[in-house]
Known about the structure:
Blueprint: H1 4-12, H2 14-35, H3 45-50, H4 52-66, H5 75-88, H6 94-110, H7 116-146, E1 155-164, E2 169-176, E3 190-195, E4 204-209, E5 219-224, H8 236-244, E6 250-257, E7 270-275, H9 279-292, E8 298-304, H10 313-322, E9 326-332, H11 337-340, E10 345-348, H12 353-359, E11 365-369, H13 372-384, E12 392-395
Parallel strand pairs: 7-8, 7-11, 8-9, 9-10, 11-12
Antiparallel strand pairs: 1-2, 1-6, 2-5, 3-4, 3-6
Helix pairs in contact: 1-7, 2-4, 2-6, 5-7, 6-7
Amino acid sequence: MLSQEKRDIIKATVPVLEIHGTAITTRFYQLLFDSHPELLHIFNKMNQRKGDQQTALANAVYAAAVHIDHLEDILPAVKQISYKHRALGILPEHYPIVGENLLKAIKQVLGDAATDEIIDAWAAAYGVIADAFISVEHEMYREAETQKGGWSGFRPFVVQKKVPESDVISSFYLVPQDGKEIADFLPGQYLTFKVDIPGETYTQRRHYSLSDAPGKGHYRISVKREDGRGDIPAGLVSSYFHNHLNEGDVLYVSAPSGDFVMKKPADKPVVFLSGGVGMTPLVSMVKTLLQEQPGHSVTYVHAAIHGGFHALQEDLNTLAETNPSLNYHVVYEKPTEQDKAHKHFSKEGFIDLDWLKQVVSADSDFYFCGPTPFMKAMYRALKGWGVPDDQIHYEFFGPQGSLTD
């Protein structure tokens, strides 16, 4: 337990973290990789380059400082991060390394302002927070390994089928190389892949959402090819999947993970709002919901640039045709004349609040996923409509961000 004196010191650093948090975490990652380059096998270098990982860590450190008197308040965030840690293979022995370099970064960025008292207080606080992560992750590792069809580490899977879904998205159907059972999953969860790409020094690890309902005897992921733009290079792993991965190839996969899952049973109308490849976890959800609660009121709205970018159309068209309780709407930013003939085409442009009010009720559970600008727009619309927080559910692809800045 932290003493009251140390908690008071931590709370006093909150304004400093608000100003210098990202500078501290940026320096932290520099120190971490300089001293332990082997950890580059675990971390996503693109998230580092874009600054997303540094911002996410700064937000987490800031939240820990704000809630230092009641760390149980950040337990949901701990669990969310821990799911990714378990999927990536973060182990207890990694935490002392992280703590050492985080304290060094605080000292280097703050200089003389980081007194011995402040460093000691943060060392003690980090120990408490690390113990919480280690405890939660220990149980997650146990569950992943001991569940029916479960496993530890990364298990080899064979690409049984590769299916183009749109101009930029392809689906990959995966079966275990050993032919044994596979673990079940909750709709909305993801798989994590360990990929060695020829010519690359470090192993790449990536999360991809499961895009089909569970219980099929295989896993399906649907991957968008991330093309380069400006100073952002093309997605290394997504390009490899699209351009070089073929049927019969082997991928190494950790057991399903993630906390972006549906409430069960659904007791309100459910609305799914997806933008681009953000549809992948939501398609898994809507398929499962309609299987488990046939007749339940469901609305699915998908937004894309145009029909060429609209994946998994066959899945959603079939669901709409066979489930009268599903209202399916397509919104294209720049529709072609052919797109406007789509049976479920409803709007040109973007999803906005005035239009949402015409097609769904505010007394619904809303699930949304997509590019960050899309998610911010959906969040602002729902909050502007007065939808309570406990009816708003969303998932970031990549490090946790903010929808309110």
